[in-house]
Amino acid sequence: MEIQFNGAVREVTGSKHLITTNSGKKILLDCGMYQGKGLETDEMNRDLGFDPRDIDHIILTHAHIDHSGLIPYVYKQGFRGSVICTFATRDLCSIMLVDSGFIQERDVYYFNKKRARKGLKPVEPLYNKDDARDAMELFIGVPYNRKFNIDNSINVKFTNTGHMLGSGVANIEITEDGTTKRIAYTGDIGRPSNRILKNPDAFPQTDILICESTYGDRLHNESDRGEEDLLDVVYDTCVRKGGKLIIPSFSVGRTQDLVYSLNNFYNEGRLPKIDIFVDSPLATNATEIFRIHPECFNKDILEIMETDPDPFGFNTLHYTKSVDESKSLNFYDKPCVIISASGMAEAGRVKHHLANNISNPKNTILFVGYCAPTTLGARIMSGAKRISIHGFEYEVNADIRRIESYSGHGDYKEMIDFLKCQDFKKITDTILVHGDQKPMEFYKHKLKQEGLKNVHIPQKNDTLFF
């Protein structure tokens, strides 16, 4: 058996890891899109490193686009195997991939207008909305903690990672020549506790561990008070300064966490009397999917739902869908909170809100999650005095704040604690993926201190044999 590492190798997007069995069966672990590098990502996304027609199955750990976003593209290129994931992941992909197809079409439309002015030939999007819808016919949803037999020699079981709705460690058993090898691919690892989702579960003993390392050299801020810090920022911006609070937030997961916190403040009578806008059609649709998957919820939110049947809605909360509704927020002259995608401020409606509000010192820009180093969000957080949005320069006069407790990724200590359900002596090889080089090296050192041996940091398209 061999495993080739085709994406999220020494970087944090584009997860794709290809298992080839001795009998020639090909199983792709995740099929993620590269994000956050502008036009450079187009070439990277088209260069898969394998022929999609050869892939028998995709095992998908969760629905985030950097893990699922190229499924419609490989479908367009001839992939007709199965996509195996949890029920919630399947449901989220049904909206997230279509949204991604829409973004492909829109971006290429504007890009081709520029090319036409230069006399250049138009380019094609990676895929469109129809490709995304058609690809959904390949999805197979399975419950957590139940073995799914792919064939007589391969099975997979998902165990909860607490990273997002439906996320799971892919626990795979492959039997060849009378010997069974166990592979655990963590996908992204969540925090030890979650506002909405169940806490991460222990996963079965493995022989080969493929582990993410996004925060491999970081510890979350222990002084971060989470919801209370959020409420403080709301009061400081909207009450004390009379300004707008702009929160770049991923549409799926982070937005629902924020809305749930604000909903609880509203129920307790602690939320200021201001309007809260969720300006993201995808977030609106994703929230509906959250509502139909209470099997993923923890006890705290289930108890709240006994008296508040909708923890994602209250009187001053408004979900906007249309472009006109979004544009009207440009002229909204009262203090308010606007939660809008994307979380890294690389695309979507939040870029318009940043352009309209980042130069006003009364306003605050609040980041609540990870931003890859090359993204607009990272540049703002690093202290940039001026930024470019849609070709125009803006002074950064608004307050820039960050709350880490809403991050969906565990830090290196939390990840190591999560892995301690394993007997490290029984793990023959550990491979680090989904992390930048420096965090990976630090995390590798920490894991070796814990007793893990043969810790690998592959380069793109490297193949390891087992």
* Helix share bin: 25-40%
| CATH class label of the largest domain | Alpha Beta
CATH architecture of the largest domain: 4-Layer Sandwich
Beta-strand content estimate:
15-25%
Full CATH superfamily name of the largest domain: Ribonuclease Z/Hydroxyacylglutathione hydrolase-like
Tell me the layout of helices and strands:
Blueprint: E1 2-7, E2 16-20, E3 26-29, H1 40-46, E4 57-59, H2 65-68, H3 71-76, E5 82-86, H4 87-117, H5 129-135, E6 139-142, E7 148-151, E8 154-160, E9 168-176, E10 179-185, E11 208-212, H6 227-240, E12 244-248, H7 254-267, E13 275-279, H8 281-291, H9 299-304, E14 317-320, H10 323-328, E15 336-340, H11 350-357, E16 364-367, H12 376-381, E17 386-389, E18 392-395, E19 399-402, H13 412-419, E20 429-433, H14 437-449, E21 455-456, E22 463-465
Parallel strand pairs: 3-4, 4-5, 5-6, 10-11, 11-20, 12-15, 12-16, 13-14, 13-15, 16-19, 20-21
Antiparallel strand pairs: 1-2, 1-22, 2-3, 7-8, 8-9, 9-10, 17-18
Helix pairs in contact: 4-5, 4-8
